[in-house]
Amino acid sequence: MRGRKIAWPAVTLLPDTQAVLAVRMDSPPDSKSIDWQAALAQHGRWLRTVVLARLGEPQAVDEVMQEVALAAVEQRAPLTDPAKVAPWLYRLAVLQSLLYRRRRGRMRKLTDRFAARFRPTEADSRTPDALDWLLLDERRQMVRQALRRLPPRDAEILLLKYTEDWSYHQIAAHLGIDHSAVESRLYRAREKLRNELSALNVAETV
């Protein structure tokens, strides 16, 4: 995992989000205001990594990032300190990830009810799409499986360290925690991942 970076696409804002940004940019100039469009572009990639670690669903990242962008530009108490942008966006991404999981949970319950009432018949020959299973090798799937077994905070910090190749100082600055907290969280996360990989009979990767 070390040194391998995920090539996230830039945040693509939906029309409603672009409109909100345009209104903010047309507002009277304020020397203390933050250019959120630039801030989201700067921090978008690692925030996507955080969201992925929290949700484990690549298809959910874009949706959550749209909510993060909207929340950033529609603040009731605008943030004016540029030094606090990264930690603030991090907390916002975590919050929006939690809200997404709640929405998905409610939707899953509705889907399960529907499936229970309308079960496939013998004439229904549809089968799940197996393309993802064919494209990924067994070892990579096991590593991902091990990551999914970890608490979101542990998966998150491992992905930031090994996919973004961040130093302890960079992780601390972006997450708004101190250096010693980064050390202890990474140590615990590595140990948990090693245990999960060992349970899956996969050689250690961290």
Model description:
Helices cover 66% and strands 0% of the residues. With 206 residues, the protein is mainly alpha-helical. It has two domains: 9-126, Rna Polymerase Sigma Factor, Chain: A, CATH 1.10.1740; 129-206, Arc Repressor Mutant, subunit A. Helix 2 (36-55) packs antiparallel against helix 3. The radius of gyration is 20 Å and the shape is globular.
List keywords for this structure.
206 residues, mainly alpha, globular
Secondary structure: elements and pairs:
Blueprint lengths: L14 H12 L9 H20 L5 H13 L11 H33 L13 H5 L2 H12 L2 H12 L4 H8 L3 H21 L7
Give a brief outline of the structure:
It contains nine helices and no strands. It is an all-alpha fold and 206 residues long. The protein has two domains: 118 residues, Orthogonal Bundle (Rna Polymerase Sigma Factor, Chain: A), CATH 1.10.1740.10; 78 residues, Arc Repressor Mutant, subunit A (Orthogonal Bundle).
What is the CATH domain class of the largest domain?
Mainly Alpha
SSE order in H/E notation? HHHHHHHHH
Which bin fits the share of residues in helices?
55-70%
Helix/strand-derived class?
Answer: mainly alpha
Q: Rg, please?
A: 20 Å
CATH topology term of the largest domain:
Rna Polymerase Sigma Factor, Chain: A
Mean of all residue-level pLDDT scores? 76
Shape: globular
Total helical segments? 9
Give the CATH architecture of the largest domain.
Orthogonal Bundle
Q: How many domain units?
A: 2
Largest sheet: none
Uncertain ranges: 18-31, 118-130
- The count of DSSP E runs of length 2 or more, i.e. the number of strands, is 0
Look at the structure and name the CATH superfamily of the largest domain.
RNA polymerase sigma factor, region 2, helix turn helix motif
